[in-house]
Specification:
There is one protein chain. The protein has two domains: about 55 residues, Arc Repressor Mutant, subunit A; about 130 residues, Tetracycline Repressor, domain 2, CATH 1.10.357. The chain has ten helices and no strands. About 75% of the residues lie in helices and about 0% in strands.
Length: about 200
């Protein structure tokens, strides 16, 4: 692993445990085993390091290429999302982070409230996700998997609410590796209610 990637991984792990404002450069030094000067060789300061760490993992986990999903029906999109979250679970385990998805959602929310640049990315991703669900709904309608007369905007938002609700309200806390299945099941249950 490259030094810069190692620093970002360790910093993000600390942020997940302690929150957006809960770490110091000394904490990062201790976690990485690196001198302050070496950290500043890669990043101008703590603010830049925290911003880049949050942005890096947010983009890796939550930003999906439109081309990956534009042909998906709702059923296909649900499977796609479950597979993506399985990947996130594997990465979190590989990094040794003993946290849940609630911590990631809280951290990204804190970052959006305190970092104007990240807030723009966060909102843009939410809007793209809404558009992704609408496209999947239209594709399902075109395949006659979905009855007419539904408000696509409203239904797409409900898919997003279910997804966010399961990720942030993981109560009682289930093992991390069960969360993608729970997400898939929750989305599929809603899909069964609204489809033909």
């Amino acid at each position: 692993m490259k030094t810069k990637d190692f620093i970002l991984q360790k910093t993000f792990g600390l942020l997940l445990k302690r929150g957006y404002n809960g770490i110091s450069v000394s904490d990062i030094q201790e976690a990485t085993g690196m001198a302050r000067g070496l950290l500043y060789h890669y990043f101008r300061g703590q603010d830049e390091l925290v911003h880049v760490a949050v942005e890096t993992f947010f983009e890796s986990w939550y930003v999906w290429d439109k081309a990956e999903t534009k042909e998906q029906t709702v059923s296909g999109l649900i499977v796609f999302m479950a597979e993506r979250y399985n990947r996130v679970v594997r990465e979190m385990s590989d990094y040794g982070w003993n946290v849940d998805f609630t911590a990631t959602q809280v951290l990204f929310g804190e970052a959006a409230r305190q970092d104007a640049v990240f807030a723009e990315s966060y909102l843009e991703v939410a809007m793209r996700r809404l558009a992704m669900w609408k496209t999947a709904l239209l594709n399902s309608f075109g395949c006659e998997e979905l009855r007419s007369g539904l408000n696509l905007e409203s239904v797409a938002k409900h898919f997003m609410y279910i997804q966010e609700g399961i990720l942030t309200n993981n109560l009682p806390r289930m093992p991390l590796n069960e969360l993608p299945y729970t997400l898939q099941k929750g989305l599929e249950d809603f899909w069964e209610v609204i489809r033909r």
